[in-house]
Amino acid sequence: MKRTLIVRIPELVGEKVKIAGWINVRRDHGKLIFIDLRDRSGVIQIVIIPDNEEAYQRAREVRDEYVIEVEGLVKKRPGGQSTEKLETSSVEIEVEKMKIISRVEGELSFEVSSKKLDVNIQTLLDNRNLSLRNKRVNDIFKIYSQILKSYNDVMRENDFLEIKSPKILSTASEGGANFFKMEYFQGEAFLAQSPQFYKQAGVGAFERVFEIGTVFRAEPHFTTRHVNEYTSFDAEMGFIESYADIMKQLTQVMKRIIRDIQKNCASELAEYESELFVPDEFPKIKLTEALEILKKEFGKEMEGIDIDPEGERLIGEWAKKTYNSDFIFLTHYPSSIRPFYTMPSADPQYTESFDLIFKGVEIATGGQRIHDYNQLVASIQSHGLKLDDFKHYLEIFKLGIPPHGGWGLGSERIVQKVLGIKNIKEVILFPRDVKRLTP
Ligand code: AMO
């Protein structure tokens, strides 16, 4: 007999079926044994009666997370026995045969079937192979999978070519100090902080490119929104008129991602009580205006010329209150805090760049790039960098390159904010931080 997925069982009343999966929970009621069995499609109650001696002996042996295979009859459910409401609760399976496929060694650190795991983040991540099996945790990755697909779909529909760029580099692409240096045969190399140089090269060859790729940041701090390895959604497009074209394209992308998860992941969103406010156009203000708003509306004075995480949170609140929007663009960041490749504005103190804030957290950075060779050389020098380190990058701009720009979008931060999850590490399968290289 072929295995049937649990989700299909309610249509098969009166038929014999074979199902297989993990034991969510076993309940013994008098002489009867009830098991909630889980596969990738759902959970169903199965019943084992003592008359069926062989199956009954096996059922008495099994514990949570054992993998079993059963054959039995699908029956309308008398109701009442299950502690939890299951989607398949109209039916149950009366077991005729049971096979134990895989056992659990030792004790489990927590009960996987709990509706909400009541464990701290350390335990959650130390026991990742187990915590990922919890329905609520599992849901996060269903949403993430949809986001990966939506980004890919919407970029292709807009004529962007998907690329994969190298992650072992000769130079740190974003500058700063947060890069990992590694031994590379006789010399040294850097792990890519972003695909910046290669997506710009992509414009020269293909006009429009996008990448979904792993990037590495040597962030020495523990925050709720930084990890040392993350998946960046990048894009770069040629023949733009200004950075506004980039914001327009990114707005379309975000609207599409949110629409797709609302359409295809409604039950997961409901589980997290996610509420999303997505206007047709996202509000846009200059960073300097944002700093003014922080002062006027919240009595918050920023020390420097940049906004801090608390400031972003408050601007997020302000955007919600003022525009009923979870999104807001902050534009024209000062040149001194933007990388050397960023296009300066008419007033060269500022840049043609932006951050996108979603529910009070920066999820993307983008803007127009310098495409003139001589201007780029001057910018590298004025940022105190060595021309020699950028020899190969500079080649791109000797070969004819149109005005262009793009963005880097932190994919994990999208999921984190959509579901209102406190720590970014909870939305990453096996996260990496300063102290965590395992599991
Ligand atoms: P930036 O360095 O701002 O820009 O990064 C872009 C986006 O990546 C996400 N992000 C992170 N997510 C998790 N952990 C981290 N440590 C982390 N660091 C950054 C954020 C951020 O907005 N090359 C430019 C982009 C461009 O201009 O195209 C860049 O990398 O969501």
Q: How does this model look, in words?
A:
With 439 residues, the chain is an alpha+beta fold. It has 2 domains: 6-102, Beta Barrel (OB fold (Dihydrolipoamide Acetyltransferase, E2P)); 131-427, BirA Bifunctional Protein, domain 2, CATH 3.30.930.10. It is 30% helix and 26% strand. It contains 12 helices and 16 strands. It has helices at 53-61, 121-126, 128-131, 135-157, 196-206, 243-264, 266-271, 287-298, 309-323, 373-382, 391-395, 411-419; strands at 16-29, 32-39, 42-48, 67-76, 91-102, 161-162, 168-169, 181-184, 187-191, 208-216, 229-238, 284-286, 327-331, 353-358, 361-368, 404-410. The strands form 3 sheets. It has an 8-stranded mixed sheet. A 5-stranded mixed beta barrel has the order 1-2-3-5-4. A hairpin with a 2-residue loop joins strand 8 and strand 9. Helix 4 crosses helix 6 and helix 4 crosses helix 12. The two termini are 37 Å apart. 37% of the residues are buried. The model has no long low-confidence stretch (mean pLDDT 96). The structure holds aspartyl-adenosine-5'-monophosphate. Aspartyl-adenosine-5'-monophosphate (AMO) binds next to strand 11, strand 15, strand 16 and helix 12.
Topology:
Layout: E1 16-29, E2 32-39, E3 42-48, H1 53-61, E4 67-76, E5 91-102, H2 121-126, H3 128-131, H4 135-157, E6 161-162, E7 168-169, E8 181-184, E9 187-191, H5 196-206, E10 208-216, E11 229-238, H6 243-264, H7 266-271, E12 284-286, H8 287-298, H9 309-323, E13 327-331, E14 353-358, E15 361-368, H10 373-382, H11 391-395, E16 404-410, H12 411-419
Parallel strand pairs: 3-5, 6-10, 12-13
Antiparallel strand pairs: 1-2, 1-4, 2-3, 4-5, 7-9, 8-9, 10-11, 11-16, 13-14, 14-15, 15-16
Helix pairs in contact: 4-6, 4-12
Bound molecules: aspartyl-adenosine-5'-monophosphate (AMO).
